[in-house]
Amino acid sequence: MSITLPQWLDPLPWIHYSKDAEEGQVRQALDAAAPGEKELSTLLSPAARPFIEAMAQRARTLTRRHIGRTIGLYAPLYLSSHCPGGCTYCGFASDRENERHSLSAKEAAHEMAAMSAMKLDEVLLLTGERTPKFDFHHLKPFIEMAARQFDLVGIEVFPMDEAEYRELAGAGCTSVTLYQETYDAAQYDRYHRWGPKKNYLNRIDAPARALSGGLRYVGMGALLGLSDPIYDMLALYRHARYLQKKYWKAGISISFPRIQPQRGDFQPDYMVDDTYLAQIIFAFRIVMPEVQLVLSTRESQAFRDGMAGVGVSKMSVASKTTVGGYSDDAGYEESQFQISDDRDVETFCEMLKSKDLEPVFKNWDTVYRDGAEY
Amino acid sequence: MSQMLKIKDQVLGSRLFTGTGKFSDTETMVKTIKASGTALVTVALRRFHKDSAADDLYGPLSELDNVHIMPNTSGAMNAREAVNAAMLGRELTESPFIKLEIHPNPHHLLPDAIETYEAAKILVAEGFWVMPYIPADPVLAKRLEDIGCASVMPLGSPIGSGQGIEVREMIRLIVRDSSIPVVVDAGIRSPSDAAAAMEMGVDAVLVNSAIAAAENPEAMAIAFAMGVEAGRAAYEAGLMSRSREAVHTSPLTSFLAGGSV
User: Fold this and answer.
1) pTM of the entire structure?
2) Domain that holds residue A46
3) Which one from B8, B34, B50, B99 is the annotated catalytic residue?
């Protein structure tokens, strides 16, 4: 199956800046008054690697100026491990033999209580792809439940239509996170072997549908390692800029998930080492100084500690990627991916404070949810 | 001793207003606010967290002497949300001040003039002392004064940009024509920017990023306090005109004195 990327998304015209970059171009990119695709491509090039310290310094200055000496904290809550998807790299793919579970209302209440007890105020609800075992009508009550307890409720679930997103906004959902995984259509087709996720364009358009439906924030990202990172990161940047132009009120955040070897012995085609991941994040801070850049507990303690406040402005903490992982009363074992940083909230916050960074749990208020009346 | 600043019924002992965002910890924030000598601080309603003292910005601020709290509506996308937030802010702080800020775009944070005007009408009627954060638009400033706002707070340049006062001529017109205090809010990077604004006759400046993002916020707060004082004192002393150099000849008007043309 061959897909032509829409012109607003296609990164190809800018790839060559990365291939051709030399020291002089990197310096120009760092000095650019209004950096865009060309500068991002240049800063992602091998020629920029020796400039990693200069990029870090710039990234930290911009992060302080636009976001502050603060790190926003959130944690994921897995509602279901049922998934009809055939994503080669995922621990929840339908051909994995592990058991599947969805939380009952009572179990979810226990999970949310456990997360509240950890002082968390932003929660990201996760599921697999849409399946009769876990569909829209299963999801909505969990959002309503979470919205009674947390000021900011986000979802990282299956793509929906605009009417569904609108209904979820009304139920108290503020943000949608949806990674394209890879923008490289051929690789996308290869990794997503079956299931609803096979539809590349449906997924590309989902963030726009969410914003049309009244959600305020969209979280975006590509799973680094699935294709050429320069291609993926340029397309991701173009996707974000497109959404900002089309939906001028949209809040954008960018995450940098990196593929980890999973059960099923999946090995990524492209290796993104720590230095290159740092380079990518610094480059994004330089070209998108005002957006939240997010780093999850997939990454190691040392890497997260080093990146906090230096480009990265939002982090998950004390995450469990198992269904029922916070309250332990379910005791399910299957997890979507391995956590590298398993520090508890208190320990993590101590680290932030030691780096003169303030952990921020609450940065939103239910008063800003649609439907409230004066 | 410079003239006292009065907003509605409240005399304020300092012309430097400060924000509370972007600090590395609450202790630094409190020390910095004290060092600045400010009498009015603004705090975002979304950073109120009554269930968690460690995460709550309002608690420590409420204990400061001689500092008035001005909740702000940052996060509001439209008039309705801003009004809701203002109501909640007043309930929690019992402060009559409200910094009305409506910036639908969460990235550049530029104010929405239309929604701000609509919200201001409602909040003035509800008895708030409304301090709207606005684009530097002299007509909008007068419209907001006409409906009873306590002050206007035009931006000098975008929040966090540190570009200083990029809209100098607009601010000058606002100051010239305003009968309510004018506060430059956003864009100020340095004490000299603050002094320059004060020399133009603005009544106060609100500074957040430039202090919070400084290497030493507490020391920078003191520097800003001095900049604001100096600028105000210079304004009150009356600046020398830029064109006071003697004009030796009057080639165009010498004929008026009977000279030859």
Assistant:
1) 0.87
2) 12-19+35-362
3) B99
